[in-house]
Design goal:
The protein is mainly beta. It has one domain: Beta Barrel (Porin), CATH 2.40.160. The chain is built from two helices and eight strands. The protein has an eight-stranded antiparallel barrel. A hairpin with a 4-residue loop joins strand 4 and strand 5. The radius of gyration is 17 Å and the shape is elongated.
Length: 170
C-alpha cells in the first residue's frame, strides 16, 4: 500500500517539479455529502466528508496536477452504533473544459475502517485498496468551486462513493 501511495504522489509531483520555474500553486479546502452507490449503498447511509488538495498549474496550461486527500464518515445500516471512516488519497489531474468547468481524473488509495460497538466493546475492521476517481468540477469566480466525483475502490467488497464537494481555493 505504501508503494502505491508513494507512486501516486510522485506521479503528481514530477510534472509540477519539472516546470516549477513558471506556473501557479493553489490549496483547496472543501467538504460536503458522500453518497454510497451499489453494494456500498447496501452497507452505508449518506454521510459527510472533508477534503484538502495541493495543486500546481503550469503557465498557459489547461492541466492542473493535484495531490488530494479526504476523510469520509458514513453510518452503517446494519447496526445502530456502527460507522465507517474512509480515508482517501489521490494523485489527480484536472483538465479545463472552459474557464468555468473542468474534468477530474486520478488514481490513489482508499483506507476503510469499519467500527462497531457491541456490548460496550468497539470492534474495528480495516482494509486499504487501490482506487480511482473521476468527475466534473465548476468554478464560481476565482476562489469558490463545486465538484462531483465517482470514487471507486477495487477491494473486497468493492466500494463506490460519490462525494459532492463545495470548497474554497487559495
Amino acid at each position: 500500500m505504501r508503494r502505491i501511495v508513494l507512486a501516486a504522489f510522485i506521479l503528481a509531483a514530477v510534472p509540477a517539479l519539472a516546470s516549477a520555474q513558471s506556473g501557479s500553486w493553489d490549496v483547496e479546502l472543501g467538504g460536503g455529502a458522500t453518497i454510497p452507490l451499489g453494494t456500498s449503498a447496501d452497507l452505508y447511509q449518506t454521510g459527510f466528508h472533508g477534503a484538502v488538495a495541493l495543486g500546481y498549474r503550469p503557465m498557459d496550461s489547461k492541466l492542473v496536477y493535484k495531490v488530494h486527500a479526504s476523510m469520509h464518515r458514513l453510518n452503517q445500516d446494519a447496526f445502530a452504533d456502527s460507522h465507517a471512516n474512509i480515508f482517501a488519497a489521490f494523485a489527480r489531474i484536472d483538465y479545463d473544459l472552459s474557464p468555468m468547468a473542468y474534468v477530474i481524473g486520478g488514481v490513489g488509495v482508499v483506507r476503510n475502517e469499519n467500527q462497531t460497538l457491541v456490548s460496550g466493546v468497539r470492534f474495528t475492521n480495516t482494509n486499504s485498496d487501490p482506487a480511482m476517481t473521476a468527475g466534473l468540477g465548476v468554478r464560481f469566480g476565482k476562489n469558490l468551486f463545486a465538484e462531483g466525483r465517482l470514487m471507486y475502490g477495487f477491494g473486497d467488497p468493492k466500494s463506490t462513493l460519490v462525494p459532492i464537494t463545495l470548497g474554497v481555493r487559495f
